[in-house]
């Protein structure tokens, strides 16, 4: 057929960045068997992938992850940033980053030796930046634990974190963030480092330097540069992160993530995407918060391969401007970000009957080609409807990685069609260091969260309160066992006991089921599902995801009562869209 490959091949944009196997296919050979039974007694499953590659076996800690990237790309670009969208990105190499890590890490050793009674914790607060990256990798290389902070947890959670961890040192992106911490919270802080200097920095020093040691990032690094110390290699089971999650009840809980946890996830992510996610030529755009484990995993996978990482210039509203300048090859995105891009696309498409008809035809045609195991080249219709979108994201996106929340089939299929199948969706949580499953390349079935990733086992457990028997119903609570599972919550044994059972299985609180191909599907949260009067269980999140694809809806909440035979929804309309739709 004119314009299309006659047999499975690789997308053109992918071949410009990666070095594909000429005898292989872009699509996974595991599409029809995405997991296998590991234990017939419990129904536990594991990845069906046969792993013969031992090149990752020497990578044990996050220091090793960086050193691997350093060995692959020593003189190549590592971190890129800019102050305004009117200027080009400025880059530093892996070698230069390593030197900055040694300077900052040496300063940490010198400063922290003054506070021997404190934990080896370093707080980081603010938006993603080269300074955040250098701070946390200095911690990884000198055996300190990073405690990311973020304002959206709320003031009570912030106070709880500062008290529970006893932080004595904090790196803030800006002086105004440091002032908020010092003015509003009680803490043990002795040292504050400011990444970006401005006039407020001088105000901060004038007001607080009598009670707290305040340094600019460069000043602090200079302390270490004048007295360089050798790196202090961490052990595999040493803590590298304490990531606080808001949860559904009570105070924020600090998920303890060890080097082994995070490295296991990174290696498994590379294995489960068959090494098609990152390579030395990849460019990762870092804008999802480092305080969340998804960005920790994806950015570390980029480092693992010696790829480039470019940071957002300002607010998330400037994402497309930065993408145009950076030309990323990998776009990590939560469904909310993809939904905004989709809405913007639909608005620009307009209401012309002919244009809409041709768009729908092209969308369905592209999906049909992908579902048949082929990849379409650009033709007139594909160029007309999707090339401008691809160019808006830099024109070089080889993979969209989505996770953090469920993605609707409509949204997933749109990006599959527009980006020639170059999208994968993952499922996981902070407690499993980010990744449990990921859709295999070429997946066409709607609603799955993919194949079980390598190195773990997953089973469905009975849910007595809901009369769910896993082996009978092929449905149950998703439970995970493996090296990436957290050992628990920091200083919270009670909450830890609620998620890790006596046999070592980590209970996610999510209801899932298996497809005939062995892929995992999420039904809903155990605590979210409710029963109606007729005995039917309703999964509200699935309904909410569907309604949220409507441009006229801003937010939606679905609930129900057991004495009623129908659910109800509370909807916040998008009044601006409604105005233009009338």
Automatic annotation (TrEMBL):
The keyword Ligase applies. This is long-chain-fatty-acid--CoA ligase. GO terms for molecular function: long-chain fatty acid-CoA ligase activity. It comes from the Eukaryota. It comes from Schistosoma margrebowiei. Residues 87-490 form the AMP-dependent synthetase/ligase domain. InterPro entries: AMP-binding_CS (IPR020845), AMP-dep_synth/lig_dom (IPR000873), ANL_N_sf (IPR042099). Keywords: Fatty acid metabolism, Ligase, Lipid metabolism. The keyword Nucleotide-binding does not apply. Gene3D superfamilies: N-terminal domain of ligase-like. It is an enzyme of class 6 (ligase). GO terms for cellular component: endoplasmic reticulum; membrane. Signal peptide: none annotated. Its EC number is 6.2.1.3.
